[in-house]
Amino acid sequence: MEMVATLRATSEVIIVNWTFQQIGRELLQKDSKDESPVPDRNNYQGEEKNDSNFVSRPEKVGILAAGSVLACCVFLCPCFYKKRRETSDTALTKDQYTMDSASSFEVNSAAEKIPASPYRVPPSPRFSMSPQLSRLGSVHLNMSQVARATRNFSPSLQIGEGGFGTVYKAQLDNGHIVAIKRGKKEQFENLRTEFSSEVELLAKIDHRNLVKLLGYVDQGHERLIITEYVPNGTLREHLDGQRGKILDFNQRLEIAIDVAHGLTYLHLYAEKQIIHRDVKSSNILLTESMRAKVADFGFAKLGPMESDETHISTKVKGTVGYLDPEYMKTYQLTAKSDVYSFGVLLVEIMTGRRPVELKRPVEERVTLRWAFNKYNDRRVTELVDPLMVEVVGADILDKIFGLAIQCAAPIRADRPDMKLVGEQLWAIRADYVRSMRRG
């Protein structure tokens, strides 16, 4: 039945004559202290998405791969803008919809970076990368020590499963608890690039909202990444109610702010600009105090190496439902692609729904499109996760869903950068605190 529903939805989408309209770039230049700008509700055209996986294609079927990517873009991208309304840190898992297919990307040039502000986070320490990376981090283990720490990779210590491999909770000889991600042996050669990428990028960053690299092992057919252990599960697990207590509105807002800070650091203040490429709820880890850490840098890419460069070429990687539609159409990746994924994530945080849910009625299968329709009809209170019991004012919900929709604009030029997103979330938080005091 799901296949029939999917085919019916695809047919419906193909005949839609969809268009994009500019939101207005002045939206991106508003002071963060102003009321969060909200798009106009009067114009919208959207498209539904299929949740089919993308997989790597050999060159001999390159044309078919390109056609598949385009078809996925048409089905997955909710294109929902017309006019703008004039108001002013545990398991590293991969979703079943993770994709990896060949193509090329573009990233923002360093010249486009925004100057520092009171929201600026400290830069990462500079150092020269050695050809031998084995001493990176503070934890240096050999395979016998790893086997002892994981009880020979006991299934009882497994805390996650992903595209790269399995994640284990491990206790070192000194009593320190860490997470060890073990690459799949059957994909040893295929994972070489992803492994090197994650190790080198993690070694360059240091921020409280980003998971910290502690060390790694590259020995024989074993590839292991050792990171800090974040003890309170993934954001998706909490949204699914698997961790007991349901997240309240303030916790969800604080988590969104933490993620925005982490991405802002990657985009603007790391030694080199970093595009995460796989921002999603299962890659957000929570600490015991409910602080969020962005994890899993296996798909991450560095920005341009030279100041006069405006793009780099790479492969298409990401997770269906969070993928930037312009990125899929043009094969160009920028920091704004992370912003799009964050917009989808923000809707997910507030609604509790996954980006694509095929078991729901046709009009609700693509959560972003469903959310925009409710938002456009001024029914934002119906978007709130029903598991969240407290009452939140419609004006606060209007601002936060308006911001999410701005982030997920189908055209990257219409999206704010992550620094501005963080500032707007802070403004929404201040409004929420004031409303609680009045109440």
Overview of the structural elements:
The longest helix is centred in the middle third of the chain and has 21 residues, at 249-269. Among the domains are: 143-228, Phosphorylase Kinase, domain 1; 233-436, Transferase(Phosphotransferase) domain 1 (Transferase(Phosphotransferase), domain 1). The protein is 32% helix and 12% strand. The radius of gyration is 21 Å and the shape is globular. By secondary structure, it is an alpha+beta fold. It has helices at residues 2-14, 62-76, 143-149, 192-203, 235-239, 249-269, 325-330, 335-351, 367-376, 394-407, 418-438, and strands spanning 38-39, 84-85, 98-101, 158-161, 165-171, 177-183, 213-219, 222-228, 274-275, 284-286, 292-294, 301-302, 316-319. Strands 4-5-6-8-7 form a five-stranded antiparallel β-sheet, sandwiched between helices. The protein starts with a helix and ends with a helix. The protein is built from eleven helices and 13 strands. A hairpin with a 5-residue loop joins strand 5 (165-171) and strand 6 (177-183). Residues 30-53 are annotated as: Disordered. ATP binds at residue 181.
As a percent range, the share of strand residues is: 5-15%
CATH architecture of one domain: Orthogonal Bundle
Structural class: alpha+beta
- What is the count of helical runs? 11
Q: Biggest sheet, in brief? A: 5 strands, antiparallel
Radius of gyration, CA atoms, in whole angstroms: 21 Å
Helix content: 25-40%
Overall form: globular
Question: If strands are numbered along the chain, what order do they take across the biggest sheet?
Answer: 4-5-6-8-7
Please tell me the overall pLDDT: 74
